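Budget justification note: compute hours in this period were largely spent on complex prediction jobs such as the one shown. Inputs:
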Amino acid sequence: MSDPFLLLGIARRPLLDREAIGSAYRKLAGQLHPDQASGDTLKFRELSEAADTLKDPSRRLRELAGGSASSSGGSLPPEAADLFPKVAGVLQQADSILEKQGAATNALAKALLLTPLKKAAEDLESILSLLESWKSTLNQELHRLDQEWTAERTAEGTPSPSTITALGLLSDSFTYAGRWELQLRNRKLALEATLG
Amino acid sequence: MIAGIDLGTTNSLIGVYDSGFATLLADTEGNRLTPSVVFYGENKEGPDQVLVGREASRMQAIHPERTISSVKRLIGRRHGEEGTEGLPGTKGATVTIACAGRVLTPEEVSSEILKKLKAIAEERLGTLVNRAVITVPAYFNDAQRAATRKAGELAGFTVERILSEPTAAALAYGLDRLAENSKVAVYDLGGGTFDLSILQLDNGVFQVLSTHGDTHLGGDDLDEVIADLLASKAGLDGLKEPSVGARIRLREAARTAKESLSDEDSTVVRLPFFEGGESLEIPLTRHEIETVCAPIIRRTLHLCNRALEDAGLSASQLDEVIMVGGSTRMPLVRKLASEIFGKEPNLTQHPDEAVALGAILQGAILEGNLQNVALLDVTPLSLGIETFGGLMNVIIPRNTTIPAKAGEMFTNAVAGQSGMKITVLQGERELAADNWTLGTFEIPFSPSPKGAARVGVQFAIDADGILQVLARDTASGMEQITEIKSAVEVSDEAVEAMLAGSLEHAFEDMDARIFTEARLKAEEMLPAVEAALTQLASELPDTEAKEIRQCAVEVTSALMSKETARLKEALAALDNATQTLATRLIERAMQ
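Corresponding output:
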């Protein structure tokens, strides 16, 4: 797979602006889309894939860390290990209540489920705010590593091995945060849809 | 020349790109809208066997049993899915329609509408029109898109593109704003479907960021509830099974009333000689229809939120909310949309014409007549395969820009396994069985210990949204490529046999089925009543509790006696007696 930074013409660094990636992508995608005279399906797909990689902090950092393998060797970062049982718990709670709600066909059975539904939504909300605060520490770390990366590149031409390792670890944390956020938000929307 | 076609649930349009302009073509009477209604005459071979559009609409009142409308709601669907209730056929088979002694597929009926549009265009232009871009709701799945394409081919078109309706509408909106960079939502509520798409417009590039929708939510559903309201206001509630003709007249009247109540505050619905009896005059206010329609329109709220979520945007980050589709003429729809997005909706686009104009423009892009404009559309539903344990493993997530390609490695879950069955799925549910199966095929490999076989599965979607699946055993290099063709082809004879069989069974099983339904309801009701009584024990008056218990006892004994009618009656009584109970519970939860 070609270098996503190169494909999009964006400088290699940990911190990137989503809008800037989107903007660079649209400019090139408009020319490469197969409907255009200058179009090329293969190049278009590659470009889309590159933009997706750069937009996702976890995938972007892994790219910078120079590999597809996970750096932490499969073990959870400590904050993730702390959050995981809480996330799994509220997800299970939400699923079970949503399943009951889906199976209920009469007004009485549905009314009975209203209180537990609200409880599940509130629990979900509180875990989401925990996740939010974890994400903000991850973003601080991202800013810090970005500065280190830029400084080392200016001084020595290449980033140090310790920065590379730190990028890999941060990438793992972003993977967990991203996946859990998606799951929690999907359940939240489903709960909101049933609460009306 | 590539024509642009909006094949709508209620109305359809056609047009072409001509000397730099998208132009809609009118029939000889000057109508640009052709009602999506098809009438089948008695004489299968005769010259007037099939009528389409206005002529068919006129026949609908006289021969409802020979007329088909809203066929778009059935296209590409299989029995057992939402919205196919009441149609004859076996679960899992593609839907067919029995009409005027014929067994028709939705594709065939749709192709009649497309033939009519083709004739209108050819008559206007004096030349053959045999290439087309046809629009579909953004949330149509693979089967629905493939069936629409088939309808186009049956009508004699080469279908150059199946295009999503809100994307088309965005193109029509954005064409004279090509230099801008903005984020817009297209709120498309038509006759049968709802879509919400979020796009970024950036110097001629239209990028769809996300889309969500409901293929069974539209003006038809509003007409249904308004028809119910009319029936109840006219005291027709007792009329349990109104004739097909009566139902169609009520729905027609509901639609007319709905349309005039978009401008007026009140109206009078007149139904002369209704059901051969007296003439009805039913006064109706906008407020009344808004009360019954609000719950349906409110269903769009969650879909809007999901689309925003997927686009990673909040409502305040949108520059415009563009309204298209005939149902957005309703003041209530505009009001709810402005509440959802916190801004006044943009009404600059013609609700009936914007989608067709967009289809014409896409045709012009494909022909190279419209340069420096590109549409980047997405796949609306996730695509994946079934993995061990019956779970859906997503390979291409929803809202991925197409054309796209992605792959994953899979391994054998059982030792000694000598092949892998690949089931290709589309949908958002975690359980494979809850998603739509697009196809299955086998990839053989030599028996190996658990986890030793390695099969690469690759999905590729082209700009048309057509999926190609490639599976490859990495050890042997054995390859299997499958182009997913949706909707199983069934021969006419097989369909006839299936219809006959299911009708016979239907009569035998009717009573048993009604009893089973009632039993299931009783089994759900009884524990719920018990739980509610316990929870509300302190605040419930003794008389009410006693009455509810009596009703519950009657349900139990009716269940024992296996008498269908008695059980239904007892359940209705229990339902009635527990109404305030449900209200109390809701109030308590909301405190």
